[in-house]
Amino acid sequence: MDKLFITILNMSLTGAFVIAAICLARLPLKKAPKIISYCLWAVAGFRLIFPFSIESVFSLIPFKAQPIPLDIAMQPIPRIDSGIPFVNNAVSGILPAATPIDSMNPLQVWTIAGAWVWMIGVAALLIYGVVSFIILKRKMSKAVHVGANTYEAVNIRSPFVLGVFKPRIYLPAGLSGQERGYVILHEQTHIKRRDHIIKFAAYFILCLHWFNPLAWAAFLLMGADMEMSCDERVLKEMGGETKINYSLSLLSLATERRFISGSPLAFGEGGVKERIKNVLNFKKPSRVVIVAAVVLLAVLSVGFAMNRTTAKSENTNNLFIVKDDKKGNTYITDFDSRSLAELAALRTPFVGNHIAVGKILAALPPLDDTHTQRFLSLGTNSEPYSLTAYYEPSGAGMSAETDVRNITDAPRNAALLFALIDNLGKVNFAFRNSPSGGELDETAYKSNIAFSKDDIATYLLENYALSLDSFHNDWNGSVKKLYSPKPMINGEWAGATRNMTLADVRAIAQKIGPDLTYGDLRDFIGKDVGSGLYIMNYDIEGGEYHLMVGSGSTDVNTPVMYAYLGRAGGALDVEKSIDIRYYNVDKYLADGTRELVRPLPIPDPTATALPQPVENLDDAIDIAIVSHNSGKFGVGVSFSTASHVTLKTVEKNNLVTAYILAYYAEYSNDGELHEIAGIHIPVAITFQKPAFGLVEYWEAKDGSYYQTSIHKKFPRDVWDKVDIQLYNEDQKRNCLQKALAYYSSLPPATAENTLYQAYYQVALKLYEMDAGLNSNITLIGLDINSVPENERGLLENRLLMWVNGEANLKPYFATYDELVKMGLIVAEPIDKAGFTNGVLIRFYESSYRDGVLTVKADKYRTPLGAVGAEFTVRFKDGTWTVDEPEMVWMA
Asked: Given phi > 0 = left and psi -120 to 50 = alpha, else beta, which region is 878?
């Protein structure tokens, strides 16, 4: 319903623009026949009722036909696409973005609420129209037939037409002969022109767009133009000399007889003042006026009926061309650039999705100031799947071969591509020295920069202490870290002017204390010794001491993680050094005493990628394994755990990497313990000490890449130890013991804490009933919306375990109407209706009291193939048992 509401909004926006334009166009058409203005309203009706149109360069609509995307409520960063950049930015800037802590996007809540309000308004207007029509119809039941389709009634004071397929003219009693003649001729003209049908259609359109004030204005103005054009038609037939008498008749109806039917569908007379003025001023328009009016009508009708075209000339960067070849797809993109923050919303699991990949590539930051990306090709025939982006000069050309190795942003852009395209294995940036002219000639690209996924993983780890997984876990933080300027020049701090002294160390420790940042150190000459990990070493004058400072960023406002003062020579020994932010510097310099003068901070668990703080490496490894694998292997999980065998650990500076054999297992317990998923795989995990913040989680590749990936990642001296079969049984037994300990610690089963099992037993029982309905099915629908919300999640997990396991069916948790919208259930015609490839199990209502659950449910295959019953489920001796239902119905 929310998508229908957004479709209506899009049509209403376009219709509002057309209505406003028609209102302006009525001014120059003031002296033209009113039939011209009347006809123009058909274009407004078309735009308000039809969600599609033809694209044309002759369109007068300045924006795209669907500026509000149908999925805008689901977008992490909602954005409209009107085709007008400043409008997009202004409107999109005020839309609420998704928040991770909410189960539903804020805009989704607004959209659903708006859809319900819209539906209520539509229903209210339709009911009002139908009810008032019926009341008026009954009121006219005693009208006297006076000729043809004309009736006279004593209980009305104004003439009108009522009906659609058999319209009748109703006249008030007491009209003079001349008045009667004018009125009948006028109303018969309406009927001949099918105005009564147009009025019904216009009211229906108004019901759909009741929230749009311009739709109401159009409804009223169209009615006025309809009446005046009808008056002009009558005068044309009767002759212009009758216009005074005709005007007097209108005036008499206006002053003595008011329209009191109250029905918007009764075709009565209104706008008498304007009509009288129009009748008195009526004269046959000149041929020039008629021709000009007809031309204007044609131009506006065509221009407003067509949508703005999105196609551009072939020499721009906006043409979308697709060319299939053996390597993949080659095309030119047609997307606006987006900010780094919006990139996360464009993520796709597949390289082969050329639309999604094109959006991502078009939204990346430019590689440099001299090149423009024009084409791209996708290699999807075999792994590793690849992406090639083709670049050409931004200007007219280049006189010499460009050394593309100087493009420092290439690996950062490649990192974003690997983070956003899940199964991408290789990225290639290709360059040429002259414009392409709109055609792709791969032989003209003489230079290139290529990256594999492993290359980028190493680059991120060594230069930014990042992994590709970190983009998925913390996109904003990773992007900020990736694009924060590094104030280093050839390994030295930019802007440094002097060496650090012991007096400087004392001043820094006293002045800054726990708030020390790199900004307080930028005046001192230091060396980057962390291979991009933001570890700076400052040699202190005199040569006896040095200061080692580490941080997660080179941003001048980011607090440092440590600032160790120690003896010069050799590696830093943390146990014999002091962190100047917390220890007494003077005592340390005097005799090496390590005296704490400020309390050490408690590690912040939110500063790491692990879900909880840890005290030792083994715990950090198990938590990382569980965190990395949770949610990957389906549903029904109530407990997950891990076991590992450490082959080797390597420490460098403040990083420690563990090379392990990891075993991960997931369990469920429905009275019996089940291991429902498990994985055993070589893993390398890198942590940042002392808080064990997760830096990288690496797994061996599958298939033919398995051995190669281990040899590339693991130290040579443990290659022969990488044998998961040696430890498989021990690790599996270890995980099982953890699961048994977990479940044994849980409180005993009660009816209240296992109520979801009762609903599950009903579903099994219902599935077994009338088993013939289950023949040749591959799908199953499960409507559990009536189940109490606090039981729904556990029930869904248990049902999924059964459906994916024993039943071996594809599940859809959806209602009948939702399955119809998906195209899985055919609703009509009745002889073809039904769930062709599946059955739908539906819970209608339930009640629970004192260990007894009563549930009404059914199983649906077709209108003539369904079964249902009221089930009673009882809790006894820790389990739920379903009674045989007393009454079963079948169709």
From this structure: left
